[in-house]
Amino acid sequence: MGRDHDHEPLFVSKEGKVRVAYRVFSATIMVGICLIWLYRIVQFPRDGEEGRSWAWIGMFIAELWFGFYWIITQSVRWNVLYSFPFKDRLSQRYDQDKLPDVDIFVCTADPVIEPPTMVINTILSAMSYNYPPEKLSVYLSDDGGSEFTFYALLEASNFSKYWIPFCKKFNVEQRNPEAYFAHVINDNADLSQELFDIKKKYEDMKNRIKLAVTQGRISKEIRDEHKGFSEWNDEVTKQNHQSIVQIIIDGKDNINAVNKEGCQLPTLVYMAREKRPGWPHNFKAGAINALIRVSSEISNGSIILKLDCDMYSNNADAIREALCFFMDEKRGHEFAFVQHPHWFYNITKNDLYSYYNHVIHKLELAGISGYDAALYSGTGCFHRRESLSGKKYSKDYSGDRDIETKKNDQRSVHELEEASKLLAHCSYEKNTQWGKEMGLVYGCAVEDFLTSLTIQCRGWKSIYYNPERNAFLGVAPITLDIALVQQKRWAEGLFQIFFSKYCPFIYGHGKIRLGAQMGYCVFLLWAPMSLPTLYYVIVPPLCLLHGISLFPKASSLWFIPFAYVFIAKNVYSLFEALSCGSTPKIWWNSQRMLIIKRTTAFFFAFINVIIKQLGLSETTFAITSKIVTEDVSKRYEQEIMEFGSSSVMFTILGTLAMLNLFCLVGATLKMVLPDFGALENLISQVFLCGMMVLINLPVYEAMFFRKDNGCLPFSIMLKSIVLASLACLMMP
Ligand SMILES: O=c1ccn([C@@H]2O[C@H](COP(=O)(O)OP(=O)(O)O[C@H]3O[C@H](CO)[C@@H](O)[C@H](O)[C@H]3O)[C@@H](O)[C@H]2O)c(=O)[nH]1
Ligand SMILES: [Mn+2]
């Protein structure tokens, strides 16, 4: 490991390109914002304008709020840093046997909405990394406690004996079989026969799993083949079962754990932690903590990769790249984790629901990394095991010397399984630091951000890495309903952190940099941003309808800051999106989603946090569904927004859309009346209202013109019209 002659770092970090120009530009916006605030103060409505002055105060509060949030969002644009590893240097400097053991955790929670075939595709992609298999262990945590998932994993372990050598022989880039077979172009004569064979094996396996699932039982022949099935008897349910740990492939076994070419296979373990009624299981965080303990017994890899069951590995070299950060001689020991962005493979061309959010993933998250405080976001993240054990970072620390390798462990598979089961008992964590100081932190639906903050406050640094070839790809929701439920859970969990003792400004004070504290708040404050947004899409249109002006006249000098801030901010936002790889259409969709999210999901999240603060409800976790019907996915391909359900969120959405339409049309008609406010006074409101109408075009379409199953239900249309009309009439 020629330390002395290798001075070249294993990674470099580079500043974002337009830093200085951006700082100047953002200063001009700040001036504009201050002038807007000043306008609200000096131009306060005179006495006798009762209704107008209340609306005015609201505008002022909303603008203060928008302004402060804008200041917060500057933190992640101020200091953008991109990092690049050199995996060839790593290979030159470290022999195979000097590389650390790596444990990969995959978690699943429900065999119906997270189909076993999808889960094992993720597992197979993780098993076939370009990494010494004897140093690799893959763990599946099954919170669904399902024998179908277990069966699928057994099938995957068999299939891996063919799949891994196939991938390595043909240097397959895409190691998720489903994705590979869907896209493979066969231009290699050598490949033909083997491709045919392996594809057939895969299809057969898939059919066997499908058959078992549709029959709703595992046949006797299959059950007899593996002793593991004996764990499932009539009493086992998802919420009530003993702990199950099965080492399906024991990587230390050089005789049985080999693929068809005689090469070693990685270790493969199935775990369903014990669940008992009355014992909180702490959702994903609980599952990961159980895995941390179980894996420490079996393989104890010093690096842990965490994956959701729907997020597969898309780059066989990702482990080596991540190691460049951890093993860099100068700075590597400082890093607790390396987070990759969440990219998705099922995004349509114009990213209808704004999941492939380029600005968040290419800019904002890299922006926080600029303060050495990249956010851990649950999946696609490599962790240093030590940083999850509650240990504080200290300057003297110089790598994972203390991690005990399990290579020479002489215990049998059975002994290991029995020892591990104890660690997965639901009472194991009682009176321990698990969920507080150790492992992932409990009590929040976004355990990832919270854990990330606590790790950084213990002195560790973290890094964000977005490689050219995406390292991981997941599944994004494909209906608005599912998307909004997910966004609500996030916004709620995030805001809950802000409200708790973990508020970054307090908890992080003196421990992480101010930029990082603000960077966290860009996300933690999603939920309260719903209030000024709702105000802005309700009050100015209503005032417009009644001829009440809330903005300066177009001919006034005060008009300039408003126009400047609005135009400059939006033009810049478009420019930013384009420079991150978006198209104008994607940007437009993202603006629509932003309004939709803020006025519905984030608003409910806000309300829920307040209710929780009052002690009226507890943390829940609605698992995001990963399945849809053919009908729905066809519309998704065509980028037709999917409503279809009568969620209250849609009532709000519909009401706001109708309200803006009524106000715009009403005001336009009234413009001809002599005593109505002049267009010059109302131009800003006409513009705002017009923008809302444009943004909401798909909503009107779903309400009035579409006949498919994804349209807005009649009841929602009715409620929206009634509510919007009432609002228009109620205002004096
Ligand atoms: O009780 C539970 C609930 C969930 N999960 C697993 O957690 C993962 C994430 O759940 P999902 O329903 O897909 O939530 P998402 O909103 O897609 O998850 C995002 O947001 C979470 C925080 O809210 C992060 O933990 C995730 O990594 C991130 O992908 C999935 O693999 C689930 O199987 C469990 O293991 N046990
Ligand atoms: Mn998910």
UniProtKB/TrEMBL annotation:
Membrane topology classification: Multi-pass membrane protein
Main location as per UniProt: Golgi
UniProt binding sites for Mn(2+): K284, D308
Question: For this protein, what is any one GO molecular function term?
Answer: cellulose synthase (UDP-forming) activity
Taken from the UniProt entry, a GO cellular component term is:
Golgi membrane
Transmembrane stretches, by residue range?
Answer: 20-42, 54-72, 518-538, 558-575, 595-611, 648-669, 681-700, 712-731
Biological processes annotated in GO: cell wall organization; cellulose biosynthetic process
According to its UniProt record, where is this protein located?
Golgi apparatus membrane
Residues bound to UDP-alpha-D-glucose are E114, D143
Q: What is this protein called?
A: Cellulose synthase-like protein E6
